[in-house]
Structures are given as structure tokens and as C-alpha cells.
Design a protein that fits this description.
Low-confidence stretches: none
Number of helices: 15
Helix content: 40-55%
Number of domains: 4
Distance between the termini: 22 Å
Structural class: alpha+beta
Mean pLDDT: 82
Shape: elongated
Strand order of the largest sheet: 2-3-1-4
CATH architecture of the largest domain: Up-down Bundle
Length: 616
């Protein structure tokens, strides 16, 4: 019989529509701006009296509190307005002091019955949710210097193992030079070093006591080091951002030596900048013996007590790169510490160094790359110039009691916050080269909400115009097309929520475009039905022919658009990807609603019934 579906097809369409309604509903319950309070030392954070004091102070500051709840030894204070978050955090921080960690948060507001279906709202991008945008520049010269210093340390160890005498090692831009007491020592060292270090071009200079070996990195090695530096920094920054718990962050390369970092939802830009841009690393070194040559030692001060210093060997046992995991805890006296686990290579090196030096002191050095601005005169004009510098300070100097392995702990930290940040940096990995902030932009929640309101308004206007046109042009069939259009938007939102896709302003543009394209298929079908009626077919035959003969044209047109969207997603970045995602999903939902949903509605309205006039 014409224009009738089997029961299973009606049930399948109904199931898809119901699922779409369920998984799109969480978007009607946006996240609440909130303040999260957790203990700095574990355990309970607030008692009832302090909680009441905080609530009274917030009310006196005209900050509306939506609710207060506790979960996993943490308190969550939900606020009515996002603009109150920063002020509320400052008030609570002043009240609690160092006893608690106070952070901005966004608390999920999805009802429990929807959470039972694992339904959650769409993730909003930086331009809608607010957040921070950083443009970072990688110091490629420092990357080359660091690699040369590592090679110099390895060469010195190799020469000592072969009992070849040397005097000084100097690093200059792309070159590394070693001085020797004689030409014979220099020639022996050259044969030994060239075997293990093929990335250099070698040149022998001077004779006798002035003999030296100059090693210059090849162009290919320089490019490899630069590529490694940018790629390693990308990986490290992604790990750090993941540790921050930011939803749908963006970390990507821009040009030869820059990295873009976007953190949606982050409002504490100082904390984000401190963690993302931290170039901290650790070095483990032995304390120098009294008879150690001066060119092999270095004097460093303690970070928390500059009046105290220690003489250390220049050779590094291991760095933070060998750390496989790190966590913050407290020792038996309640002082913060960081528990360290090393990888296989790091554990072997640590064991080898400590088992032969029991009773000797080992230092943990904290290294930070920083910049300071200075004003210089260029062509008679004052120009601000960025000057990079390195801060090295001792965290601890402890006696080696026994051979260490893959696990040990670092003490001597000033605060639990410092211990937590150090553990985070070690877990996420150290940067292969220092990075500097070139640009910083903050998008506040109010601007994000303004973008959302304008985006929703554009969708509403586009939907209204399409609805009015379809009603005026196709009457009853226009009503059917408009119902399908509304369900199409519902299914699109549900699909994006299920897939965890991020909605951005370009994504909203893709939704608006989808709404316009969604009715194209209905227009083709309805015009075909009109044409068949003019050709003399009966109403039932015209409806059937309209859907059957328009099918191939609709699929062909949408497949080509889908291919373009896939290409945009594969080669595009940032906003282009957001547009491609919504466009791709919109095409799929449009095909479903135009070819199956409207056909089911027409079948239920006209299928198998005597119809004298078709309102189309």
C-alpha cells in the first residue's frame, strides 16, 4: 500500500526522537558559577559556624548564593551570577586564609534523572564560555644551549671514564669547545667523542697546552633540536592543561616558534599563567668535595634562605625529565613534600650515583627561566626589550643514607601550594625550552554570555524566517516541515552533547546554515509532489513519487556538502573545526528529518486515506 510504513519503522523514528529530546534537555540547565573550597592539608575544611559566617559575608556584599553542598571533603558554593565569582573568591580566601584552597568552578546543574541517562550539556568554547587566550614563544636559542650543555656533561663523563685530561668546556651559541693539556689528549678525545656524538662538525685548534676541540652543531641537527623543542613543549603544555581539568582546551602550534593556548572557562588567569608558563625543572647533583677543581663546581644559594649556600658539582645526575610520576603529601611533621617516581633510566642513574656516594650530600636544584623588561634606546627612541634570565636555587641538601632507586621524596618546600604545583609540573613533564608570553587576552563570562545571547538570537531569527516562509508557501505541508525543522535542531543539539563536541560562535553559524539547508530537501520533495499533481497523478501517487524521485537529488547534494565539511575538519583549526562539526552533524540530522521523519508524518496524515484535496 502506498504511503505506509511498517510498525517497526515508526517505532524506530519515535525512539530516535525521544532520545534526541532526552539528550538535548540538559542544555536547558546551564552550569552554575561556583566557588570550590578544599582543605590545604586534607580533611574537613569548614565547620557549620565558619560556613554561616561566609554566607553572611557574601550576602552583605550583595552576592546571591544559590546553594551550598559538600562532596568528597570539598564544599561547593553555587552563585546566581557569574560576575560575582571573583569577588566571592576574594572574600572567602580572606576569611579562610592558608587553611583552605579556594578556586573558581562551574558546577553542573543537570537534574539527577537526566544524569541517570548520562546526559550532559554541550561544552562551550572560549568565545562563549569565557576564558583566557595565551600566545607563547619558544626560546629556540635556549633550546640549543640546553642541548649543548647536556652534551658537554656527557662528554666530560666520557673523558673522565677514559682518563683523558681536559681543562675547560665552553658553550657558545651553536658550538661547544673543550680545552686540553696537550695535542695528544685532544686527538684521543676527538676519536672517542666523534664515535658517540655524530651531530657535530669537528675542528681541532691550537697545539700543546693551547690545544682545543671545537664542535659545531650541523644545520640538520639544529633543525631537529628546534622541532623537538616545539613538539615537546606542545606535549608538555597539553599535559599541564589536562592537569588543570579544563574542558576542551586548545593547544596548537602557530608558525615556527609560537604556541597558542586557549582555556575555556578559566577565570583565574594568574593561576593559569603560573602553571602554563612555568618553566621549572629539577636537577639532582652531588655536593662538591673539598679537592674538586673549581671549573667543575658551582655555588648556589637556597631558595628559602639566600644567606645559606652550598658548593655543588656541575655534572647532573638526573633532571626532572626522568620523573614518571609525582604527588604531593606531608611528612611525619606535617611539612609538605613531593613523592617522586623515576623511569627506568632515571632510576638506574640515581642508583649508580648514590650507591658509590653514601654519606655524601645530594642537592635538589629548582630551576626557573624568567624574563624581565628593560628600557633601551634605539635610534633615539625608548624601546622595551625582553631580557631572559635563569634562577637556580637549592630546595634541599640531604645526606645520602643508602642507595636510592626509582622512588624517593623531596622535602624543604615552603608551602602545600608550592608542593602541589611542583608535583603537577613534574607529572606533566618539563619544557624542552623556555617559553615567554607574547600576548594574553581574557574573555570574561559577561562577554561570553553576550556572545551566547547574540548567537541564540540569530538562530531564532533564522528559524522564524524559515518557518514563516514554509507556512506561506506550503500550508499544511509547511507545518509538517516546521515540526521536522524543530526536531532537527533538537537532534543536532543532542548529537553534539552526546559526542562532547565544543560549541563556538562559528559552530552557531553552522547551526544557522543547517536550519536554512534543512528545508531544502523538503522544498525539493514538495515541489516534486506539486509537479506530479499537475501531471495528473492521484494524490497518493504524487506523494509517493515526490519522495521517491527527489531522494537521489537530496542525497547527492548533501553528500557533497558533507565531504566538504569533512575536509574542513581535517585541515582546519580552531573556529573552522567548530563550523565543520556542526555542519556535518546538521547534514546527517537533516537527512533523517527530511527523508524519514516528514515522510512518517505525511504517511500518518494521508497514507491509506481517501484525500480529495492536498493543501500544499
Amino acid at each position: 500500500m502506498l504511503n505506509r510504513y511498517p510498525l517497526w519503522k515508526y517505532l524506530l523514528i519515535l525512539a530516535v526522537v525521544v532520545a534526541g529530546l532526552i539528550y538535548s534537555l540538559p542544555n536547558l540547565f546551564p552550569e552554575d558559577p561556583a566557588i570550590q573550597i578544599s582543605s590545604a592539608r586534607g580533611g574537613a575544611t569548614l565547620d557549620e559556624s565558619r560556613l554561616e559566617q561566609i554566607e553572611r559575608e557574601l550576602e552583605s556584599a550583595d552576592i546571591a548564593v544559590k546553594g551550598i553542598e559538600q562532596a568528597n571533603d570539598q564544599w561547593l558554593i553555587r552563585l546566581e551570577r557569574a560576575d560575582d565569582q571573583l569577588n566571592a573568591r576574594d572574600i572567602i580566601s580572606d576569611r579562610l586564609g592558608d587553611d583552605a584552597s579556594v578556586a573558581l568552578n562551574l558546577a553542573e546543574a543537570t537534574p539527577g534523572w537526566l544524569q541517570a541517562f548520562s546526559a550532559s550539556p554541550m561544552t562551550l568554547g572560549l568565545d562563549l564560555r569565557g576564558g583566557v587566550h595565551f600566545l607563547l614563544e619558544v626560546d629556540m636559542d635556549a633550546a640549543l644551549t640546553q642541548r649543548l650543555e647536556v652534551n658537554a656533561s656527557a662528554m666530560r663523563e666520557l673523558l673522565r671514564g677514559e682518563r683523558i685530561r681536559y681543562r675547560n668546556t665552553d658553550v657558545d651559541e651553536r658550538s661547544l669547545s673543550i680545552d686540553f693539556a696537550s695535542s695528544e689528549d685532544r686527538d684521543n678525545a676527538r676519536r672517542l667523542i666523534t664515535r658517540d656524538f655524530p651531530d657535530f662538525e669537528y675542528a681541532s685548534e691550537g697545539d700543546g697546552r693551547g690545544a682545543s676541540l671545537v664542535m659545531t652543531l650541523t644545520e640538520q641537527s639544529v633543525e631537529e633540536i628546534r622541532d623537538y623543542a616545539i613538539n615537546q613543549n606542545l606535549t608538555t603544555l597539553r599535559n599541564r592543561v589536562n592537569e588543570l581539568g579544563v574542558a576542551e582546551p586548545m593547544v596548537q602550534r602557530q608558525g615556527p616558534d609560537r604556541i597558542v593556548v586557549e582555556l575555556p572557562g578559566v577565570q583565574d588567569t594568574v593561576a593559569a599563567k603560573r602553571v602554563v608558563g612555568a618553566t621549572a625543572n629539577l636537577e639532582f647533583r652531588l655536593e662538591a668535595r673539598p679537592d674538586a677543581p673549581s671549573n667543575e663546581t658551582e655555588t648556589l644559594e637556597f631558595r628559602n634562605n639566600p644567606a645559606r649556600s652550598a658548593e655543588l658539582m656541575r655534572d647532573v645526575i638526573i633532571t626532572g625529565d626522568s620523573v614518571s610520576s609525582a604527588s604531593r603529601s606531608f611528612d611525619e611533621n606535617g611539612r609538605p613534600q613531593v613523592n617522586i617516581n623515576l623511569d627506568g633510566t632515571g632510576g638506574t642513574l640515581m642508583n649508580r650515583a648514590t650507591r658509590t656516594n653514601i654519606g655524601r650530600n645530594m642537592a635538589v636544584i629548582f630551576i626557573e627561566h624568567k624574563t624581565r623588561d628593560r628600557t633601551v634606546m634605539v635610534d633615539g627612541e625608548e624601546v622595551i626589550e625582553r631580557e631572559p634570565y635563569v634562577e637556580r636555587g637549592l630546595i634541599s641538601l640531604a645526606t645520602i643514607q643508602s642507595a636510592l632507586g626509582n622512588s624517593f621524596r623531596i622535602t624543604g618546600l615552603e608551602s602545600p601550594t608550592e608542593a602541589a604545583e611542583l608535583a603537577l609540573l613534574l607529572r606533566s613533564g618539563s619544557l624542552a625550552a623556555p617559553i615567554y608570553f607574547v600576548q594574553e587576552r581574557t574573555i570574561g563570562p559577561s562577554l561570553g554570555q553576550n556572545n551566547i545571547d547574540r548567537g541564540v538570537l540569530s538562530v531564532q531569527i533564522g528559524l522564524l524566517l524559515v518557518v514563516l516562509f514554509m507556512l506561506a508557501r506550503y500550508k499544511v505541508f509547511g507545518v509538517i516541515a516546521n515540526v521536522a525543522l524543530a526536531l532537527n535542531l533538537t537532534l543536532l543539539i543532542a548529537a553534539m552533547s552526546l559526542l562532547g563536541a565544543t560549541l563556538t560562535l562559528p559552530g552557531i553559524a553552522g547551526i544557522v546554515l543547517t536550519l536554512g539547508m534543512a528545508v531544502d530537501a523538503n522544498v525539493l520533495i514538495f515541489e516534486r509532489i506539486r509537479e506530479e499533481l499537475r501531471n495528473g497523478l492521484s494524490i497518493q501517487q504524487a506523494i509517493n513519487a515526490g519522495y521517491e524521485r527527489a531522494f537521489s537529488s537530496i542525497v547527492d547534494a548533501n553528500i557533497t556538502t558533507l565531504l566538504v565539511a569533512v575536509i574542513l575538519f581535517s585541515i582546519g583549526t580552531g573556529p573552522v573545526k567548530g563550523f565543520a562539526v556542526t555542519l556535518s552533524l546538521g547534514i546527517l540530522t537533516s537527512l533523517f528529518t527530511a527523508l524519514l521523519l516528514t515522510r512518517a508524518m505525511v504517511n500518518l496524515s494521508y497514507g491509506g486515506k481517501p484525500v480529495k484535496k492536498l493543501w500544499i
